[in-house]
Task: structure prediction
Amino acid sequence: MKQNLKYIIPAILLLLGIFGVFSHRFDLTAEKRYTLSDATIATLKSLKEPLTIDVYLEGDFPANFKQLQNETKFLLEEFRKVNPKIDYKFIDPIATKMSQDTLMAMGMQPSMLPYTKDGKETKVILFPYATLKFKKYGTSIPLVISQANIDLTEQLNKSAENLEYNFASNIKSIIAEERKNVGVLVNQDELRPDEFRGFMDMTLENYNAGPFIPENKKSLTINDLPRLKQMQALVIAKPRKPFSDEEKVVLDQYIMNGGKTLWMIDAVNAEMDTLMTKRKLMAYPIDINMTDFFFNYGVRINAPLVKDFQKSALIRVEAGEVSGNPIYKSLIWPYYPIGINENKNPISRNINPVKFEFPTSIDTLGRKNIKTNVLFESSSRTTLKSVPNYVELSEMANLDSLTIMEKPSTPKIFAVSLEGKFGSAYATRSERNDILLCFCMLIHPLA
Result:
């Protein structure tokens, strides 16, 4: 009898689950995919007023979207268990005869999919979105991620994996009593905000962002610290002018006081516009006098250019002409490696591949109480090209041959995150904080 019980009890539990007697899901995944993170729970518990979620994923549609619907229902039910002030419902926009103009005005774009029903091929229009309504505010959330070069099944699987972060981050944004401030340093001959407009547009969706100009209009001084402390994050985008020692002290003290920084650094001067015009350019290192600064945090940015012969973008070049008309051809350009998220880090998960242009590499040196996470790195088919050196378009014709001062290498890091307890290079004090380091970028995450 006891031997039979070990088979009967699991069978009963299975039947109870099938008939909906209980809705708990046992999370047996190694990464705890079906367990809400501490950050999500904290966000949900901070909600003091009612929040309404409308999910436009109801109706007659393909099975793979049914799976996304089920995952969304389960997640929102878990949200409601944490905080009963969260209410949700699923809406069929077609059955309720909502006009496409109304849905599109709410920020939703239709998806049209082929669908086989009763042996007949047809097309179904979907609006896989959710809307959040909190007080007088509202926002729409796409439930299907946008990522290139993957099929629909993988896209929906990734979308399901991203649901918790997608909802939690938008809830956190809509219930925030005030937005955090992000400053863009304008001092070191950096990119102007209009030169990376896409980044700024995304930042402005969730943060107050704008230029940060030193008080004396020339360089950062200790007098700028009070204003810097009002910024939860500081962006330094492609600085070209070397930092002075005083400026490094100011930045160090900003970080020690909890400030977060995002560094986008070109360690080598090499511009594609020049190469396309002259077919050849001299690449040379750029020294912004920050080697000791980054070294203190456990990071070294190297000068040699990284070439990747396996994960690289294509560029379109003129390959000849016919009757005076140019003929163009797309060829692999190893100086444009593609960063693909292979480490499942939440920072880079479910985003499109990142194209790096003439990147160099990052070495992580290891520091006590600092955790390092690699976000992007090159493939096993990597070479390093020392600089100063020539870069020529003709290299595309001989991808199997090494050029002058070039050697094979192990995979190289383009992007890392650093988090933990960082010590000041200019004092004996230290502060708990988080840092991320990407390509030649140092990021303090926007937490």
In short: Confidence is low (pLDDT under 50) at residues 16-23, 437-447. The two ends are 56 Å apart (CA to CA).
